[in-house]
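Journal club side-thread
Mid-discussion, someone asked how the predicted structure for our own chain would compare to the paper's figures. Pasting it here so we can look after the session.
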Amino acid sequence: MIPEVAIRYSKSVQTRIFKRTVSNYMNWVLPRKLLSPVRQFTRDGHNEVLFRDLELTSNSVVLDFGGYIGEFSEEILQRFDCQLHIFEPVQLFVNELRKRFEGSEKVWIYDYAVGLKQRDFFLVLDGEATSEFRGSIGLPCSLRSVDQTIIPRLSSIDLIAINIEGGEYELVPALYQAGVLNKVGQILIQFHKVGPNSDESVAQIRAIMRETHTLEWRYEYVWELWKIVEKAK
């Protein structure tokens, strides 16, 4: 006789599979205008969208803010063989990054975040959604101002990738004030809703980027790609 708990578990799995199947089907049959930005992103190729319009070579310099455990950076390295500077303030993730890229001569890992002013802060651990804005108790981390990092000493930067769960609202102004944005070829950024004024904050960041870059494509609150004006299509 099959235990009741096993039956409930089996039904739960079947329900999740059914819901996922229906969701995937709807992604393809619904008119595009009826899809959420996430569903549009999925229909267009999901993470493949992030790489297909990037202009990078083996000589390119890429900054990955919010490296997490390095999946995005590793994909960039495999596809383009770039020089990579990864910024990740959570020591647990830094350890994973160092294991992943051990022996690589094209990857540099920094165990801090970057922003307007040096400070210590706390991050609530939640996998790739680890954020300063998701609770009051977290892991102690450090943040450095742009001029305390290698960034100003880089003669050119071909791509900055920003996925830092709300930290983008401090990072982009910091890069702008430090005079860095005008030497960045491409900006791949994910905005996050971290409070009631998130839409206003997004508008402010886009206004800053618009001074030097033009929008290539956008999936609202998913990902968007900006390219420096002279490199824009």
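Post-session note: The two ends are 65 Å apart (CA to CA).
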